[in-house]
Fold:
Amino acid sequence: MIQTPSTSERAHGLHTLGRWTADRAMATPDRVAIDDRGVVLNYRDLHDRSTKLATRLEQAGYGVGDRIATLTGNSADHVVLFFACAQAGLVLVPISWRLSPREIAQQLELAEPMALVVEDEFASLGAAAAERLLDPPPQAAPGMRGIERTPPAPRRSSRESTPEHRAVRDDDPLLIMFTSGTQGAPRGAILTHANCFWTNLALSRTIEITSNDTVLAVMPQYHVGGWNVQPLLAWWTGATVVLERTFDAGRVLHLIEDRGITTMMGVPANYLLLAEHPAFARTDLSTLRHAVVGGAPMPEPLLRTWHARGVALVQGYGLTEASPNVLCLPDEDARSRVGSAGRPYPHVEVQLVDPVTDEVIEGAGSGELVVRGPSVFPGYFRDELRTDEALRGGWLRTGDLMQRDADGYYRVVDRLSDIFITGGESVAPAEIERVLFEHPAVADAAVAGVPDDRWGEVPEAWIVARPGVPVDETALIEHCAARLAKFKVPRRVRLVERIPRSGTDKVRRRELLELWHHEQLEALPLASNPVTS
Structure:
């Protein structure tokens, strides 16, 4: 019989997350921790499985700082592995199953994990990615029939030192989360135990989750929101988390009513699909006292649709590098400050700075948001150059342009890198998108600046039409002209089937611009053969 050391023997740091399952197993052992598609796991079993797995990983040769990558959907098995890593001081590296084999191989090359845990559903994808690697990591399946029974021996590169076996410290890495890549190649953001502790403590001070809550988790666990926006806080406080692998609007509405969901988090597209589902109007939402939207700005008409159903749907703001919670709008401000991202969480300090001069902007105004506090990450994995670019003078540069009003509430304007200049005037695509979303024919919209011989760049829009509602380009342009300065009005509105978005619902404007350039090339007349004398 395996003699498993207690969690306290491993997790000596005050803010290490390996302690959390031990605390809950002692306080509320029989309470349901996870409802995974109807299969439940209580806190006693969550702690027992995590502790046994931590021991088996240590016995197999894994040490503090060793990385285990995963290619899996949301599952109780994945949560068990997370808390086992937390206890043993290992680093979980969740990789998106939406990526191509080439992209997965690139992330594995960067992270150099000692093992890769692949769910059966993604076995072909994992194998295709491994074929692209010179020295692929050993693979295992998740769960009690896989890594929990027999962990693979860790594979170490030549740069890896002998594994370290010691108590886990607050500043030890716990997660490496790959950024969405909307502004370039994805980077592996390191999040420590302390980062995760403080971001969840801050969350608890604004969005209360108690042992009586039932949390619906639809965000994928390869995204930081799949851990640090409600689920980890729920397991810290003894709540029940209903895990969903994929988002299906009809099923989510059924779960809200059937499971008595009290709180959830999603991206704008999730709430749009829910609001447009035929069952939305008749679904009992009375238990859903709170809902959070993040990842991208939420169209204000959609916020009001949810408010009309009695749900305090509030917009927040965060980014992976801040673990991610930065700004939040309290429930009591949901209806009076529609569209606002709120004010800073406790233990989070923010400033606005001039993007050019770096001067701090006082009072009401606009500028780049910078963040400081214990939830801000220590850097990107093995990328000192980009770490130095992101962390300057102790502040995290978010790259986001924000407006702050006289009461200290913030509103997202746009990514600084997405802002374009037309005729000397700066234009934020998100401002035009908000206006397009107000039109009843628009289900989704995106705007980007495209090259123009006269003005340098001009706005162009791509929209997805709402089913059953007539759409007319001229009417949409006139709609914008009545609400925006002339230089902000789209010169053309294109009807498309979908807007390219990241996993967190951010518009991939680079893809739109690539499409635009491709269309311009196709429209060019064929060059004639030169005439020779």
Notes: Residues 419-522 form a domain with the GMP Synthetase; Chain A, domain 3 fold (CATH 3.30.300.30). The first helix runs from residue 7 to 10. Residues 67 and 91 are 5 Å apart (CA to CA). Residues 527-533 have pLDDT under 50 and may be disordered.
